[in-house]
Write a structure and sequence with these properties.
Blueprint: H1 5-15, E1 18-20, E2 32-34, H2 36-55, E3 60-63, H3 71-76, H4 79-82, E4 84-89, E5 96-98, H5 99-106, H6 118-127, E6 144-147, E7 151-154, E8 162-165, H7 171-176, H8 178-185, E9 191-200, E10 215-225, H9 230-247, E11 255-259, E12 270-277, E13 280-291, H10 293-302, E14 308-309, E15 316-317, E16 320-327, H11 328-339, E17 340-344, E18 350-354, E19 365-369, H12 375-385, E20 391-393, H13 399-408, E21 413-417, H14 419-424, E22 426-431, E23 437-441, H15 445-452
Parallel strand pairs: 3-9, 19-20, 19-21
Antiparallel strand pairs: 1-2, 4-5, 4-6, 7-8, 9-10, 10-16, 11-12, 12-13, 13-16, 14-15, 17-18, 21-22, 22-23
This protein binds glycyl-adenosine-5'-phosphate.
Length: 455
C-alpha cells in the first residue's frame, strides 16, 4: 500500500478531519479548518502532551500568555531584526521560493544550506544553473530577506498607530513570565514552564497540508536550570520528547534525531526529531540549548532583573534554558500519516482504517443499533457513555457500512445494540484493529472502555 499525502488529505476532507480554510471563497492558501472529527483528534493530542509534560512532570507549570505582546519583546528576542528567510522570485512565472530550499533540493540533500550566506546561496544557484521548479526557467531575481512576522497595528486615533506583531512562537510568553511563575509557585531550579498556543509565520513556502502553514499551534516546554547541569537536562529532554511521540503512536522506525550542524553562537547543542512523512524525513520538533541568551536579552531590553536567587547559596544568576518545541498541527499530521492503512479482508473486501492510539482517537466508541426500532435502547446507552467519552451515534445503513465509516475515523470500539440487548442488557463490542467481537453487559462498558483508552 502506498501512503501518499493526497490520500490522507482526501480522507481528511471527506471524513471531517480537516477542511480547506475559507473554502466557499475558493480557499485561502495554506490555511486549514479542523472539522468535528479532526478537532477531537488534535485536542486529544494536546491533552496527552499536557498530561505528560505538565500534570505528570514534577516542577512543571502551565501558562497561557497573550498572543499580542509588547513589541519590545520581539526586539529583545531578535525576531524584529533577524526573523526572515532568503527568498528568490522566478521572473518568468512569478513564483516565490526559498533560496536554501532550492539549493538543498537541487543537490538532493547532498549540500546543506544551513548556515550558508546569501552570497553563497546565490553563487551555488548561478554556478549550477538551478532552474525554477515550477516553470523550468533560469531567470531569478536576486535574493532578498523575507520577513516572517505578521504585523498589525494598535491604536484608536488615525496616525497614532503602533506596529504590533502576531507572535511567531509561544516561547517568549514563557520567558517573560519566568519570574512571575517562579515567585508564585516558589519553584526551585530546575523547573519548567509549558504552554500550548497559536503562532503565526508569514512563511515563504508554506505547503504540504498541515506540515507548514501560516497559522499553527505550538506546544512548548522550557526548562530553566543551572548552566552546569544544562547539557544533562538537554539529553533528558531529548529522550522524553522521543518517548512521548512513540507513546502517542509514532513507530520508532519512522523517527530519528537530527543534530543541527550550525549552532547559534550562544547555544551548546540543538537537534530536531524528524519523522518519516510521505514527503520524506522532516522536522517534527526541536530541542534547543539556549544558554542565558533569552533571559539576558529581556533583562537588557526591559531593564528588569531576570535573575534567580539560589535559596541555598544566596547566589543570584540568570538561568540557562533548554527548550523543547513541537507543533500540535505537525504532530497531528504525523499521527494521521502513521495511522492510515488500507487492508484487504478475508473474502476480498477492502477497508481504510485509522489505527490511532485509543487515547487520541477522535471518538472512543460508536453506538450502533442493529435496526432502527432499537434506537430507544441505543440512545439510552449513548446517553450513559457520552458522560464519560466522546461517542458517535449512527443508525443509517447496513452494520457493515457503519463499521467501515467508524474504521475510517479510527473509532476503537463499536457497541452494537441488538434484540438480545432488550432481554439481557448485553451488547456486542467490536474492536477496530482485530475486528474481534465480544459480548459484554452494559454495566461493564464504562470500565472496559476506560481501561483501553488510558494514556
Ligand atoms: N520556539 C522555538 C521554535 O519556534 P521552531 O523550530 O521554529 O522553534 C518549533 O518551531 C516547531 O513548531 C517545529 O518543530 C514544528 O513542529 C512547528 N512549526 C514551526 N513552523 C511551523 C509552520 N509553519 N507550520 C506548522 N508547524 C510549524
Amino acid at each position: 500500500m502506498e501512503k501518499t499525502m493526497e490520500k490522507i488529505v482526501n480522507l481528511c476532507k471527506n471524513r471531517g478531519f480537516v477542511y480547506p480554510g475559507s473554502e466557499i471563497y475558493n480557499g485561502f492558501a495554506n490555511t486549514w479548518d479542523f472539522g468535528p472529527v479532526g478537532i477531537e483528534l488534535k485536542n486529544n493530542i494536546k491533552r496527552t502532551w499536557w498530561k505528560r509534560f505538565v500534570q505528570e512532570s514534577p516542577n512543571s507549570y502551565g501558562i497561557d500568555a497573550a498572543i499580542l505582546m509588547n513589541p519590545k519583546v520581539w526586539e529583545a528576542s531578535g525576531h524584529v531584526q533577524g526573523f526572515s528567510d532568503p527568498k528568490m522570485d522566478c521572473k518568468s512565472c512569478k513564483q516565490r521560493f526559498r533560496a536554501d530550499n532550492l539549493v538543498e533540493e537541487h543537490s538532493k540533500g547532498a549540500v546543506s544550506a544551513e548556515g550558508m550566506t546569501n552570497e553563497q546561496l546565490e553563487a551555488y544557484i548561478n554556478e549550477h544553473k538551478v532552474k525554477c521548479p515550477h516553470c523550468g526557467n533560469f531567470n531569478w531575481s536576486s535574493i532578498r530577506q523575507f520577513k516572517l512576522m505578521f504585523e498589525t497595528s494598535r491604536g484608536t486615533i488615525e496616525g497614532e498607530k503602533d506596529t504590533v506583531y502576531l507572535r511567531p512562537e509561544t516561547a517568549q510568553g514563557e520567558y517573560v513570565n519566568f519570574l512571575n511563575v517562579q515567585r508564585t509557585t516558589r519553584a526551585k531550579l530546575p523547573f519548567a514552564i509549558a504552554q500550548i498556543g497559536k503562532a503565526f509565520r508569514n512563511e515563504v513556502t508554506p505547503g504540504n497540508f498541515l506540515f507548514r502553514t501560516v497559522e499553527f499551534e505550538q506546544m512548548e516546554y522550557q526548562t530553566f536550570c543551572k548552566d552546569e547541569t544544562s547539557l544533562q537536562t538537554y539529553e533528558t529532554i531529548k529522550q522524553r520528547a522521543l518517548q512521548f511521540v512513540e507513546d502517542v503512536g509514532l513507530k520508532a522506525e519512522n523517527l530519528r534525531f537530527h543534530d543541527h550542524e550550525k549552532l547559534a553562537f550562544y547555544a551548546k547543542a540543538a537537534c530536531d526529531i524528524q519523522y518519516k512523512f510521505p514527503i520524506g524525513w522532516e522536522e517534527l520538533n526541536g530541542i534547543h540549548h539556549r544558554s542565558t541568551w533569552d533571559l539576558s536579552r529581556h533583562q537588557e531590553f526591559s531593564g528588569k532583573p531576570m535573575q534567580y536567587l539560589d535559596p541555598v547559596t544566596n547566589e543570584k544568576f540568570i538561568p540557562t534554558i533548554v527548550e523543547y518545541s513541537i507543533g500540535a498541527d505537525r504532530l497531528t499530521l504525523a499521527i494521521l500519516c502513521e495511522a492510515y492503512d488500507e487492508e484487504t479482508l478475508e473474502g476480498g473486501d477492502t477497508r481504510i482504517v485509522m489505527h490511532f492510539l485509543p487515547a487520541v482517537a477522535p471518538y472512543k466508541v460508536a453506538i450502533l443499533p442493529l435496526q432502527k426500532n432499537l434506537s430507544e435502547k441505543a440512545k439510552e446507552v449513548y446517553s450513559m457513555l457520552s458522560k464519560y467519552f466522546m461517542c458517535d451515534y449512527d443508525e443509517s445503513g447496513s452494520i457493515g457500512k457503519r463499521y467501515r465509516r467508524e474504521d475510517e475515523i479510527g473509532t476503537p470500539f463499536c457497541v452494537t445494540i441488538d434484540f438480545d440487548t432488550l432481554n439481557d442488557n448485553t451488547v456486542t463490542i467490536r474492536e477496530r484493529d482485530s475486528m474481534k467481537q465480544i459480548r459484554l453487559s452494559i454495566s461493564e462498558l464504562i470500565n472496559y472502555i476506560s481501561k483501553q483508552i488510558e494514556f
